Structure formats: C-alpha cells, structure tokens
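Hello,

Following up on my earlier ticket. Below are the two sequence lines again, exactly as submitted.
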Amino acid sequence: MGDNGLEIKEIKLTAKDFASDQDVRWCPGCGDYSILAQVQRSFPDMIGVPKENIVWISGIGCSSRFPYYMNTYGYHTIHGRAPAIATGVKVSRPDLSVWVAAGDGDLLSIGGNHFIHACRKNVDLKILLFNNRIYGLTKGQYSPTSEKGKKTKTTPYGSVDNPFNPAALALGSDATFVGRALDGDAKHLQAMIKRVAEHKGAAFLEIFQNCVIFNDGAFDKLTDKKTRDDNVLYLEHGKPMIFGTNKNKGIVLNNGKPEVVEIGEGKHRIEDLIVHDEHDESFMIATMLAHMTDNPNMPTPVGVFRQVSRPTIDGEIEAQINQVKKMKGEGELEKVLFNGNTWSVN
Amino acid sequence: MIKEKEVQQVTEVTVRFAGDSGDGMQLTGSQFSETTAIFGNDLSTLPDYPAEIRAPSGTVYGVSGYQLHFSSADIHTPGDRPDVLVAMNPAAIKKNLAELKPGAIIIANVDSFDKKNLQLAKYETNPLEDNTLKGYEVYQVPITHLTSKALEGTKLSPKDVSRCKNFFALGLMYWLYNRPVEPTMKWIQDKFKNKPEYIDANSKALNAGYNYGENTEIFTIRYHVEPAKLPKGIYRSISGNEATALGFLAASVKSGLPLFLGSYPITPASEILQYLSYYKNFGVKTFQAEDEIAGITSAIGAAYAGNLALTTTSGPGLALKTEAVGLAVMTELPLVIVDVQRGGPSTGLPTKTEQADLLQAVYGRNGESPVAVIAASTPSDCFNMALEAARIAIKFMTPVILLTDGYLGNGSEPWNVPHVKDLPEIPVKFRTEKEGFAPYLRDENLARPWVKPGTPGLEHRVGGLEKANITGNVSYDPDNHDLMIKLREKKVKGIANDIPLLQVDGDQSGELLVLGWGGTYGAIKEAVIKAREAGYKVSQAHLKYLNPFPSNTEKVLKSFKKVLIPEINLGQLAKLIRSEFLVPVEQFNVVRGLPFRVSDLENKIIEMLGGNK
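Thanks for your patience. The regenerated structure is below:
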C-alpha cells in the first residue's frame, strides 16, 4: 500500500521490454541468439533492480554487439577493455547493476589482464563469457580457448597453443561466483543468469556458445539429445554428482582424483559420490570440476562451481569514504587550499 | 670572543644541495624552500634526482640534487648556475662542478672525502687538496663528525646518527642565508611525533649546524635576501603536481560532480594520484588500476556514469591510453587526461623534464580524433589549468589532454592562494527529459547530451562504432561518416571561442616575438626581461591552449617580423604553427632533460635581433 492508501501495482516487465529497436545482426543459427533470449527472459525476474539501473558493457567481437540489442543502458567499447570500463562504472556508481558481455578472445586474450583483476578485486560485475573457442568477427582464427591441434585459418597445420580453461582461470583469480552453462539448454541457462544476477561480487558465467560459421558443432556432444546426458554433469548444491542417461553414473574422489563410477547393485552406492558444495572455501573440488572438461573421459560439469561471499571493492571504496568523512568531517575546499605553511603579503 | 659577522645584502641566490640518493637531499632542499617561502622570498625549485631509488652510494650516477633560486625580486626559474653548492661527498662535486658560477661557494662535507669515496667518484687525488677547486670559495666542514659530536649520548645507532647530517647542513645554510630554523623544527616535531628520539636528534643536528655557522671562524660573512614584494595575498609554496591535484578537487567542488581518478603509478605523475587519494572526505574516488589502459578505461566508465573523470600519466602511459582516448572522442564523453611529460622516447629519462609529447597529444590516435589540448606554464598554474581542463571537458563533452611536465610537477613556487568563492563555477546539465531525446543531439556548442545511467526512459546505447548523426545508432553510411568526422572537428575547433585570447607581453608588434608553451614560461620570461634590460626590443607570448589555438594567434604572429619558438623538443609547436598559419618561425631546441638556461635563450634572442637594439 502506498502512503495515500492506494494500492500500488508493480508493473511486471516482460522479455519484450528488454529488447531494443535494433535489428539483431548475428548469423542465423548463432548461439548468441539463445543467450540474448535467455537474458531477456530472465531479466523481468530481477527483483529490486529498475530497468534504468541496468548497464551492459562490452568490448569487441560478435558477442560484444550484445548491448545494442538490450533496451537498457549500454556501452559497446574497445577490444578487451569491457571489464575495466565496467569497473569504472560500478566503482563510481554502486547503485547500478553492471553486466559485461564478452567473447573468449576479448575477455581472455587482449582483455585477460582486466578480467583477472576484476575477479581479484571482486568488483560487483556480472560477466558473461560467450565461449565459442574461435575468433568469429575476424573470420576464423584460433582463440585462447581453442583446443590444441585445432585447424583454423592461422593454424593450417593444427594449433600448437595450449588453451585456457576459463572457469579454472576465474577460480584462480578469486572470482566469488564461477559458473558454466550451455547456449543450448535454455532453462538451465536462465537459471544460471538469475543466479549471476543475485550474486554480490565478481560473478563469472562461462557459456559454451556455438559458432555456426567457424566452429560449428563444437559443443554438440554436450547439447545433442543423444549424447548430452552421458557427457554433461549438472552441479547442484548439496546433491551428489550424478549423471548419465539412466542417472547411473557418478563422480567419486579416488586418491584425490575424480573418477567416473557406475551406481547400482554390487557397484558404487550414492553415498560414495562427491556431494557438491558451492560454498566450499577451498578451491580444490571447484578447480578439479572446472578442469574435468579438459579430460575426454570425464563429463563436462555445468552449474555453479563456487559461490562465496567477500567484500566488493566498490563497496569497500564507498565504506572507506564514509569512514574518512566520519573521521575528518566533510571536506572543505577553502581549508584544503589554505592548508599548511601559509604567509601573508600585505 | 666571537666578533660580529658581516651581513651582506644580495638580491638573489641559487643554491644546490647534492649528495647520495640516500643522503636526504630532496628533504633538505624542500625544507630550505619551505622556510624560504615562509620568509617571503620569491622562489623556484628544481629537484633533480636519478631514476634509481638508491644507486650505489658514492657514485656519480647516484647523486641526487635539489636546486632552488630565491630572491627579493620577482623570479621565474630555478636559476641557470648555482651560487652555492652543498656537496655531501666527492661525487657531488664531480657531477656539479661544471654547472657552478665562477667563484661559487662550495660547502663540502670533508669527512666523506676518504679514499673509498674519492675512488667511487673517480678522483685520483682529493679535489679539496689539489687545484680542482681553484677559483671557488671552498668551506671544508666536517659535517659527519660534528653531527655525531652534537648527538653524543643519544640512543640512536651510529648509522641513524650519520643520517642526521643533512639537518646539520641545513642548519648551517639557514645561518648562512639568515633564515629561521623554526619552520623546520616544527616539521621535525610533526614528522616524528611518535619517535621522540628522532625529534631530539634531528633538532640537535639542525641547531648544531646553525650554531657552527655562528661560532666558527671560517665563516666571516653571512647573506641576507630581503622578502620579495609579491602581490597582496595569502601565499603557500606549492608544487605542480599538488596544484594539479587541488585543481581537480576544486573542479569537483565547483561542478558538484564526484571526482573519479583512474590511474596507474608512473614517474613523474604518481604524486597526483597520491595527493588525490587523501581527499576521500570530498567523496573523491581514486582507483589504482592494473595498468595504464585500465586507468583511462575505468575513467571513461566513470565519465559515462556521470562523474568528473580523470586519468593521470606520463608520456609512455599516454601512448598506452591512445586507443581509449579515441573511444572517448567517438562517444563524446567528458574526460581529462593529464600527461606530466618526461624525457623520451621509450622509458627515456623518467625523472627528467621534456616537452616532446605535444604532437602525441594533438595527433597521436588512429583516425580523425580531435581532442582539446591545454598546458600549464608554472607549478601553480597547474591549478588553474586543471580547472580549465574540467570546464572544457564538461561544456563540450570532449576529452581534454592537460600537459604539464616533470619540471612543473616536481618544482615549486609561492602560490597566491585563491578563495573558493573567486573560482569559476563549472555548470553541469544532465539530460533527464524524455521528450525529444536523442543521444547525439547537439547544443549550441555542438556538445551532445550527458545522460546518467539510472535516468528512467532515456535508456540508450553508445559505442566506438561510427554513430548516426542525432540518433547515435551504428551507421556505416558514407555521407554520415563524413558529416560526423567534420562535426567532431568543428566542435573542438569551436572551443577557441570559449578561451582567453593570446596575450602579448611587451610591444604588441615589432621585430621579434618569442612564443612558448608549457613549462618553459619562466625561462623565456626571464630571458626576455634580461634582453630588454640590455636594451633589446622583444615581446613574449605564451600559449596555454594548444588545440585549438586562441582565435587571435595568427594575428599576433603576423604582427612581428620574426617569431622564435623555444621548446624542449625538436620543434613540435613550431610544426603546428607553421602548418596552421603558414608563418615562418625560428626554432630553438635544447633537449637535455632540464629546463632551459636563461642565458642560452637570451643569447638566441640577441642573435636573432642581429645584436640591434
């Protein structure tokens, strides 16, 4: 009820309210369409964040066109710098909800430094990585997440370059939220976007995204109905790590190493499996899970690897300002100018 | 019985303190400056130190120096050649001797002239004993010995005792130039308020030095420099970097905008970041970024979010920020970039001064990327120009590059402190009306609207891709690109109507105009005054606005038969002036990492006049 006794109806926004008037110009079939759709569908559920307080920042690359298609504030900036620009927005305006859309080249190659420092500082940013493991906008060169041996325009004999594991990098850089999702699993992706929205601190979501032109099918094994159940491990907090078409496989720790086991009579029991703890302060299991995707014999985990709470730099800067104001009082320019040893000439 | 010592009146003195990087020469020099300022002399300083923090002691390349020039009259430079050298070791003599005035006073710490230090300074024989210092007035003072004697009974270690010797030297200089010890006493008490043994030791050393001058027989004369007749007001001594910081603090207050500084430490600009990080109670947010690029891009983010946004750097950092400056040009955001220029190229001479970033500031970006470029001319002028940079950036929604330099940044001078009420207001208007809004609509100054994210109904997108006129949508249209390129240029050119005209000091037309910009103001001014005193007719003009130039620049240039442009680079302003106005100009370029010598400039002026008065 409002002050005047009238009932105030909150207008619930819809996905459409978040679509800008610009034509979307990605290639037909691009995974970016799904990500855009899931973001637009999830945003009306963001509680307590007025639409005008949402800012999307991006760098350069196919995915970096993202802000143009969102009917929010948006800034399409320069290659690799989105996390640094977003940091400036958030630190100077903690009231805003600041989102970063970035590709694997943008975030992890030219922008790698800004990315790790945004994680380390725990800037309250929501960073979505559109990982298609290729350079799309420059037409098909290998990226810092391309697998070794990959043949691309700049690696005609196969790449000899070892890739980053983005989730492991984010964990190693101390991001307080690290998750992974698939462009092809709309429901799960929406759930992950909402989790990112709720997190306070540096939130990193790696989204495996198909590039239909230069790296088509890169994640088919994880999204194809026939193969996905045996290859994707959905992480759920407090639940044992189970996967497989018949929910008959699980992950155990064997001498500190993950191992796939069968569950059932005469085999392993559910109690033997690792129970996922998102809030585990230790990095051990989360890092192990992030790296499982590098091993062809292991399923690829998706979901939230780790979510912990730590003060954000934007909050700390604000808090320190208030503390100094309390200690010294509001600044008075006249006093500062005439501070120190002054002398008078008459 | 000590006889009364003679006091000799002098109008001006140039003193240089020199010793090891660890001898505390910068502190000694700055204390002498502060006291001299309080005493009421006009002064100008030149700290000159190596890039190494503690180079091997005793070596010539480890010598740190601090020069100051003070006077009972108006002065503009830290002095060409010292009248007095305080040399804490042989290397200090080796490094500085050639710079001294003939017959200069040398006060040498004789205790450090041992075999080891002589060898380190590459002296085969002791310069105090051979003919090296013939013609100079040399005072050999056992400073180390006298300091430890004064501190007998202290609890300090012998090493700490030895560290107090710079205060002994300072005390002696206070006696010699008839300055009070009290300001430094007060400083010592504040600085070491939790370490009473250091207060005791440093005060004793300072007094011992002063009394040594008073009581010893070797000094028969002391000097007196009357206070200068400066314009009425309340003064303080200020360095360029501190003035820059205060200028932006003032701009924040006067605009009502919170100040955000994104910066990465770099010599000689780091002090601005350090100073501003103090003023948290003004709501100032200083962000020490991971690199130069994040320094400027975080500032761009803050500008986009509606703050007074600033980044500070030196030449190599500006090179790294280049692409981001272009983004601020394309998205037409108010942003100030301060470049405290240093010797280049590459890492160059990090602790020395130079003016060689002018072309980088004006042109150093991809595409047609106009920005406003302005420059401070003296340490205290950094305050005014910081305010100007903020004003122009906000009014015209444009990046502004403010050029200062190592000499201005580190050097200090008396500053007639302005009152807040006398500072210009900086009006800011954020767009909030939805009706008729478009991101690239322009006002009478061709500035686009500034919209704070969080404003309902004005959600819009901007970016580095070419913008369609008015709507700001991405546009690849050839005619639109041509239009936008010309609009951005026209907007920056229009700033010329909003800045002061170029002033000519001296005759408004005639034979010779000396045109300068930036930190060479003082040296040029003094050379021009000296030439005039010698009977030559010469005028001076100094550019503080370099892009665009003041609207009367061409008229001024064409009022003189000859134009001389002295610069600490290879003629960057000369190039701009020639290409803009097709005026023949003569260059004078000496790029030594140091301010000009006034005498060199004076000679050039006389040469250009053919010796004709």
